[in-house]
Design a protein that fits this description.
Strand content: 5-15%
Radius of gyration: 19 Å
Distance between the termini: 25 Å
Shape: globular
Helix content: 25-40%
Strand order of the largest sheet: 1-6-5
């Protein structure tokens, strides 16, 4: 029986190693953008003298921050359930402001989250922009009012704590790790 298990482990490792090589050499360049997970609620945008284009540029233009590879962020599940980490309800609980996909935000990331491409590997990363700290939503009489330049209510500490917990849980759970590995090639599973 032990010999049989060694063969199974060897085959699985070979398959995952092969997938890792394939994905490591494949161009990312945002080619597999996955839209927002959940329903984004409409907001009232105040007339603050910003055009929609200026808003989008402020919200989603990369400033070089890289927190996590985009394909990891796309498929990462929350530590305590099978919902995606980037799910609209989860992001709202962390007080980030989910947005639908747009030209400058094809991945439907929350306001202040941006895609950035590593120039040497061509892999997409998710990072934060100034808008993550300087855009807020005030809920008043059932309206969600967006305020540009306002201090955020987002909980950065809880966001990073939950991100680390989700990554650790994925690493510790072989089934979750294998499933996510096949979706996005999370290489840390066998470290």
């Amino acid at each position: 029986m032990k010999g049989h298990m060694k063969h199974v482990v060897l085959v699985l490792f070979s398959v995952f190693f092969g997938l890792n090589l394939y994905y490591a050499n494949a161009k990312d360049n945002f080619s597999e953008i996955v839209p927002v997970d959940g329903k984004v609620q409409p907001r009232v945008e105040l007339d603050q003298g910003w055009s929609q284009e200026i808003r989008q540029l402020f919200w989603f233009t990369s400033q070089g921050s890289r927190i996590i590879p985009y394909n990891w962020f796309t498929w990462l599940e929350q530590a305590d359930n099978n919902s995606l980490f980037r799910n609209v309800e989860h992001m709202e609980m962390l007080r980030y402001l989910p947005m639908s996909s747009s030209k400058l935000n094809p991945a439907g990331l929350p306001i202040g989250f941006a895609l950035d491409t590593d120039q040497s590997t061509r892999k997409a990363w998710v990072g934060l922009t100034c808008a993550a700290c300087h855009t807020n939503q005030i809920d008043y009489q059932g309206a969600r009012i967006l305020v540009e330049g306002a201090p955020t209510l987002a909980n950065f500490v809880k966001f990073f704590d939950e991100l680390v917990n989700a990554l650790s849980k994925t690493n510790d759970n072989a089934f979750r790790c294998v499933w996510q590995y096949t979706k996005c090639c999370i290489c840390f599973c066998f470290a």
